[in-house]
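Sample 3 of the quickstart, ligand manganese (II) ion:
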Amino acid sequence: MELIIPAPTTPTLPIAGTDARFPVRRVYCIGRNYAAHAIEMGHDPDREPPFFFQKNPDNLDPSGTFPYPVKSNDVHHEVELAVALKQGGTNIPVEEALEHVFGYAVALDMTRRDLQAVAKKAGRPWDTAKAFESSAPIGPLVSADEIGHMDEGTIELLVNGEQRQIGNLNQMIWKTAEMISYLSEYFTLAAGDVILTGTPSGVAAVQKGDTLEAKIADLEPLFVQVT
Ligand code: MN
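Result:
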């Protein structure tokens, strides 16, 4: 087959302990999945149905640097557990959902909070706030075979060595299996899909020159330099 332009490359993520890489198909992100963060953003923490937005596969950035984006003066960190799928489907039952997980990684859902506030007020989509270049720094994936399924453990973010965000994975309003099941009712999930599972409270602005250290349970910490 002749392609009229060069084919875009498939973004891939590193996997701890191997040279093999994980190819990314789609990126789904859940909003307000920790009660304390819902409250800090001015929302009711009750278990209303989950809602999702998407980032682009090539927004995932394992480089360890975060170039401060254009068009914003208020870019926030959100530390999140990333879940990578090795198989997909539709209408996946909750009790079978974790069988679809390849593994887990530490990630950041970087957010242009000023643009998000404008979009929220106008009832518009969040894409410019969420789905920009390098907006999802991510560490190496660790397979579930190795680390098990991660339903509890400390999730923490430090900026220049000072703690900004702290929570526990067991505080997620919607658990990983429930998110996979719910998403699979609305989309056809597939191998290569990545889900960012929400952030605990303490989100705040980053500045050029900051060093971010994101830590989740036994996963290797993710260091990101804001440039
Ligand atoms: Mn988020």
